[in-house]
Design brief:
With 261 residues, the protein is an alpha/beta fold. It has helices spanning 16-27, 40-54, 68-81, 105-133, 154-173, 192-205, 209-217, 229-240, and strands at residues 7-10, 31-35, 58-61, 87-90, 136-141, 179-186, 251-254. It has a 7-stranded parallel β-sheet with strand order 3-2-1-4-5-6-7, sandwiched between helices. Helix 3 (68-81) packs parallel to helix 4 (105-133). The longest helix is centred in the middle third of the chain and has 29 residues, at 105-133. The chain binds nicotinamide-adenine-dinucleotide. The site of nicotinamide-adenine-dinucleotide has 29 residues, from helix 1, helix 4 and helix 6.
């Protein structure tokens, strides 16, 4: 349990990849604050399971990642009640698929706020404590779309490219503080986020569900397999190890070869 005594805050961790990060960090003994939306009873079940796994405290914050004041308050609550955060994983994210000329303005604003600006606000609030303690791990869930684009995803691709730029900048600013900042960039991971975009992609491209699965999603990944949330979480755990202390400003592709092409 190499994270015993450390505290991790994972945004967007009531589902999918974020929940896998929270479970993996807890399995190594970290006290974890989870965040995100969902059914309160289901969230409480996950929170209790995470606490039982880690043997440390686990808390839930309902902070909305579109609201900078709620993000700052979440980081402050983590510091006050759990300590830290020593590990900050910005992971909350949403998607919307539409041609650029029809892209709804509210979706553009929400995607930029949740997928990009929220990471800035969380980092801004967490960095002073990391600097003071002389240790920190900042991990941002980016995407293969931080490196390459796909049509009909203008907001998402813009946000994820921006997130990589933010990560590199923060890595340089914190390079002499024993705080690393890296991106993890998955290809298609089978989670509710991917499942939900299938109907819109069917509409945008005039395709059947099977065509979207095979000709839009898995066609991007030379392995022809979805990434698993657990594979993404394992990479985050590695980045928290002392052996990863010199890895900073990097972007880890976990995409079945997508961006090698
Ligand atoms: P998901 O839909 O399963 O989980 C998203 C999480 O974000 C949930 O916990 C949700 O409640 C939370 N969230 C959404 N809006 C929020 C808000 N306003 N405030 C607080 N929390 C909010 O999705 P996922 O696939 O696990 O995605 C997690 C991250 O991984 C996202 O940043 C996504 O862009 C990225 N990603 C996913 C894939 C994939 O194929 N699934 C690929 C690359 C990158």
């Amino acid at each position: 349990m190499f994270l015993k005594g450390k505290t991790a805050l994972v945004t967007g961790s009531t589902s999918g990849i974020g929940l896998a990060y929270a479970k993996a960090l807890a399995a190594e003994g970290a006290a974890v604050m989870i965040n995100g939306f969902g059914d309160p009873a289901a969230i409480e079940t996950e929170r209790a399971a995470i606490a039982a796994t880690s043997g440390a405290e686990a808390l839930y914050s309902p902070a909305d990642m579109t609201k900078p004041d709620q993000i700052a308050a979440m980081v402050a609550e983590c510091a006050e009640k759990l300590g830290g955060p020593d590990i900050l994983i910005s992971n909350a994210g949403i998607q919307h698929v539409a041609p650029v000329e029809d892209f709804p303005l509210d979706k553009w604003d929400a995607i930029l706020a949740i997928n990009l600006s929220a990471a800035f606000h969380a980092i801004r609030a967490a960095v002073p404590g990391m600097k003071a303690r002389g240790w920190g791990r900042i991990i941002n869930t980016a995407s293969a779309h931080s490196i390459v684009a796909s049509p009909f995803k203008s907001a998402y691709v813009t946000a994820k490219h921006g997130l990589l730029g933010l990560t590199k900048t923060v890595a340089l600013e914190l390079a002499q503080h024993n705080v690393t900042a890296n991106c993890i960039s998955p290809g298609y991971v089978w989670t509710p986020l991917v499942e939900r975009q299938i109907p819109d992609t069917m509409a945008a491209r005039g395709m059947t569900r099977d065509q979207v699965m095979n000709d839009v999603l898995l066609v991007a990944q030379p392995t022809r397999q979805f990434v698993t949330p657990e594979q993404v979480a394992a990479t985050a755990l590695f980045l928290c190890r002392d052996e990863a202390a010199q890895i900073t400003g990097a972007n880890f592709s976990i995409d079945g070869g997508w961006t090698a092409a």
